TrEMBL record, chain A:
It comes from the Bacteria. It comes from Azospirillum oleiclasticum. This is Molybdopterin synthase sulfur carrier subunit. Pfam families: ThiS (PF02597). PANTHER family: MOLYBDOPTERIN SYNTHASE SULFUR CARRIER SUBUNIT. Belongs to the MoaD family. The gene is moaD. Keywords: Nucleotide-binding. The keyword Nucleotide-binding applies.
UniProtKB/TrEMBL annotation, chain B:
It catalyses: 2 [molybdopterin-synthase sulfur-carrier protein]-C-terminal-Gly-aminoethanethioate + cyclic pyranopterin phosphate + H2O = molybdopterin + 2 [molybdopterin-synthase sulfur-carrier protein]-C-terminal Gly-Gly + 2 H(+). Belongs to the MoaE family. Its EC number is 2.8.1.12. Converts molybdopterin precursor Z into molybdopterin. This requires the incorporation of two sulfur atoms into precursor Z to generate a dithiolene group. The sulfur is provided by MoaD. Residues 127-141 have a biased composition (Basic and acidic residues). This is Molybdopterin synthase catalytic subunit. Keywords: Molybdenum cofactor biosynthesis, Transferase. It is an enzyme of class 2 (transferase). GO terms for molecular function: molybdopterin synthase activity. It comes from Azospirillum oleiclasticum. Heterotetramer of 2 MoaD subunits and 2 MoaE subunits. Also stable as homodimer. The enzyme changes between these two forms during catalysis. Pathway: Cofactor biosynthesis; molybdopterin biosynthesis.
Length: 83, 157
């Protein structure tokens, strides 16, 4: 599974994207975020407030109960500020 | 579908000319041009850098354009959004809507920029004398976009 980070999530976690292999019990976006938090203090800190962490799976916005699996492209990013 | 995400500047007049040339059903064009301001939150901004999500950004802009075309009778739409480092006065975004009548052109242009600001994956980082900072999303932008959720579809004509 490929995970992408944008804006301050990218700068705080320190990588733009990475390939991860979460355990089989991680089946949803919410589960993935909780598992990512266990990967280190920078993850735990950047992902602490999930109200400001939006998620896209395969480039479409999804809620935290959306399923995720191997082969998915998951993006985590703060609320958008374009325009 | 006409959506462009690019680092380069755009020429508003040339874009309007290209959109309307030899298309005599168009009665009016509304243009919105977003610019970099020199002040944000009371602080001087010397520059900003726009980050985006290549692929998803284009898909979201196309979805937003499709929604505008569903709601209003539009002859054409152009969305251009820049990324990279921009300075005060630089153009950021262009929304053009062309229709037989002005009401559809005005309303759809307003809708497009409101929706774009809350749905298109772009993020701004400002350079200020206090250091660089990520721009935070504004509740007022969500309110502006939400207004359109309740808006009835264009009644026609």
């Amino acid at each position: 599974m490929k995970v992408l980070y944008f804006a301050w999530l990218r700068t705080r976690i320190g990588v733009a994207q990475e390939v991860v292999e979460p355990p089989a019990e991680v089946t949803t976006v919410g589960g993935l975020v909780e598992w990512l938090k266990t990967r280190g203090p920078t993850y735990a800190s950047a992902l602490a407030n999930t109200k400001v962490v939006k998620v896209a799976v395969n480039q479409e916005y999804v809620p935290y109960d959306h399923p995720v699996g191997p082969g998915d492209e998951v993006a985590l990013f703060p609320p958008v500020t374009g325009g | 579908m006409t959506v462009r995400v690019q680092a380069e500047d755009f020429d508003v007049g040339a874009e309007i000319d290209a959109l309307t040339r030899d298309r005599h059903t168009i009665g009016g064009v509304t243009a919105f041009v977003g610019l970099v301001r020199e002040i944000a939150g009371g602080d001087a901004v010397s520059a900003m850098t726009l980050e985006h999500y290549p692929g998803m950004t284009e898909r979201q802009l196309e979805a937003i354009e499709a929604e505008a075309r569903r709601r209003w009778p539009l002859d054409d739409v152009l969305l251009v959004h820049r990324y990279g480092r921009l300075e005060p006065g630089d153009r950021i975004v262009l929304v053009l809507t062309a229709s037989a009548h002005r009401q559809a052109a005005f309303e759809s242009c307003h809708f497009l920029i409101d929706w774009l600001k809350t749905k298109a994956p772009f993020w701004k980082r400002e350079e200020t004398p206090q250091g660089d900072r990520w721009v935070e999303a504004k509740d007022s932008d969500d309110t502006a976009a939400a207004r359109w959720a309740e808006n009835p579809v264009w009644p026609g004509g």
